[in-house]
Amino acid sequence: VRIYQAEDEGQMSRQAANLISAQVILKPDAVLGLATGSSPIGTYRQLVEWHRKGDIDFSEVKTVNLDEYLGLDGSSPASYRFFMNEHLFDKVNIDVNHTHVPNGMAEDIDRECRDYDRLVQDLGGVDLQLLGLGHNGHIGFNEPGDAFENGTHVVELTESTINANARLFARREDVPRRAITMGVGSILRAKKILVIVSGEDKARAVRDAFFGPVTPQLPASILQLHRDVVLIADRAALRLCR
Ligand code: F6R
């Protein structure tokens, strides 16, 4: 894992956007694996700005998102599809048919999971996967557990994740309790992985994930075994690492 320390969240976001735009310049039809949450918002904003200046062309880019809540459709403001449209897809020249987010309304969820894995495979795999890091070390919605899950699957969210996400809902009861997520195996199959983390509240998760033992109790720790991971974290998030 190569670690870059950014001064603050703004610098982290610009550095991450730089790596993503470099990927798109090198391979205009790149497959980008994308995440939602607070962490990538500044990165997407920067990409939108560079696109408006004419510096990045998304016309051939394909995207696959990590996860989606079960029971929310794309028109629901709390859904991850809505988030992606709002923060990135609606603001750049990407073909919406090239953007993929798991379907949280699928009638046959097992089939949706299998189809999602096949889709990623048919696209030729993910060239660059962007990841945030959960406080409990989750990546995507792969929560701490007894084993690493390979492919796309359904998860019960932990209380910690439900609490962290409750800010995006009117009431805590409105937070879905299940989600569909790419597995740890799917994530590790990406050719390159870019993890972005900011804030003091993530400092323990960063230390344990990148400097502790590899264990399914801390899903992000398995990233230590991938050959091409870049971690961009701000000073606050790296506070316990040196
Ligand atoms: C989002 C996702 C999650 C988040 C993680 C960190 O698609 O897969 O794993 O990356 O929960 O969330 P934030 O960035 O909101 O702290």
Automatic annotation (TrEMBL):
InterPro entries hit by this protein: Glc/Gal-6P_isomerase (IPR006148), Glucosamine6P_isomerase (IPR004547), Glucosamine6P_isomerase_CS (IPR018321), NagB/RpiA_transferase-like (IPR037171)
Protein family (similarity comment): Belongs to the glucosamine/galactosamine-6-phosphate isomerase family. NagB subfamily.
Catalyzed reactions per annotation: alpha-D-glucosamine 6-phosphate + H2O = beta-D-fructose 6-phosphate + NH4(+)
Official protein name in the record: Glucosamine-6-phosphate deaminase
Organism field: Shuttleworthella satelles DSM 14600
Domain Glucosamine/galactosamine-6-phosphate isomerase: 15-226
Active site residues according to the UniProt entry: 67 (proton acceptor), 136 (for ring-opening step), 138 (proton acceptor), 143 (for ring-opening step)
Record gene name: nagB
GO molecular function, one term: identical protein binding
Pathway participation: Amino-sugar metabolism; N-acetylneuraminate degradation; D-fructose 6-phosphate from N-acetylneuraminate: step 5/5
PANTHER family linked to this entry: GLUCOSAMINE-6-PHOSPHATE ISOMERASE
Keywords: Carbohydrate metabolism, Hydrolase
EC top class named in words: hydrolase
UniProt GO cellular component terms: cytoplasm
Function: Catalyzes the reversible isomerization-deamination of glucosamine 6-phosphate (GlcN6P) to form fructose 6-phosphate (Fru6P) and ammonium ion.
GO biological process, one term: glucosamine catabolic process
Listed EC numbers: 3.5.99.6
